[in-house]
Amino acid sequence: MSWLQNLYETYENNFDMVGRFEKNSEGEEFTLLPLYHTNLIAHIEIVVNEQGEFVWADVVKKEDSYTVSPCTEDSQSRTRKATPHPLHDGIKYVAGDFVDYGGEEKFKEANELYLNNFKEMILHPNCHPKIKSIYQYIKKKTIIKDLYEHGKIKIDDNNQLIKKWSKNGDKPELYKVASDISKAVVRFDVHLEGEMTDKVWKDKDVFDSYIEYYSSRLDGEDLCYVTLIE
């Protein structure tokens, strides 16, 4: 048995653990990742309502920062190329106003790709409603503005994002967990009035919705050498 096939069978034998969160000895959460997902370490969490309106934002504590995020083949293997993940990702990818506040120009194109990929995702027949709500928010391109207005980031006198904190006085919480704000990772959640639901990055229904969507995009003629048995 090849090592790849061994890995595949190990995953299949533990499939019931996919998306079930546990804690390690340091109190940090982890899980066996669903197909077409990766894990990110989030720094800031933005919560929107069902209509896609900004509700609040919180700095994420280290022990709660593990975040399961949809990914694509290109985004998972990105190096220098600015290829965004489809949902949660770095602020420079998800914030449509990042360039307006001093971000690198190349991330304007990256954000357009992020939005286009997001739009394809919500057009899938079984797209989860939470994903649609998040899209209604991110397409407004107000993430930097909203985080500033709610005291999570700082803007200088030239209307430029202060990426690194070098001033005297109390350092804002986000700057304590992300030394360079341009590299901070944003995750999203949806607040449904009067309902208790799983966080988006812990919601198996959201995972399954993305798996169905991304599976539909893959070329059916691709050959899997892991499961191929002669």
Note down, in words, how this protein is organized.
The chain has 230 residues and is an alpha+beta fold. The protein has one domain. It contains 8 helices and 8 strands, in the order H-E-E-E-E-E-E-H-E-H-H-H-H-H-E-H. It has a 4-stranded mixed β-sheet. Strands 1-2 form a two-stranded antiparallel ribbon. A hairpin with a 5-residue loop joins strand 1 and strand 2. It comes from Bacillus carboniphilus. InterPro entries: CRISPR-assoc_prot_Csd1-typ (IPR010144). This is Type I-C CRISPR-associated protein Cas8c/Csd1. Pfam families: Cas_Csd1.
Number of domains: 1
Radius of gyration: 19 Å
- Main sheet summary: 4 strands, mixed
Task: Enumerate the spans where pLDDT stays under 50 for 5 or more consecutive residues.
Answer: none
Q: How would you sum up the global shape?
A: globular
Order of helices and strands: HEEEEEEHEHHHHHEH
User: Helix segment count?
Assistant: 8
Question: End-to-end span in angstroms?
Answer: 12 Å
Share of residues in strands: 15-25%
Give the strand order of the largest sheet, numbering strands 1, 2, ... along the chain: 5-4-8-7
Q: Indicate the structural class.
A: alpha+beta
Mean pLDDT, nearest integer? 85
Helix content: 25-40%
Number of strands: 8
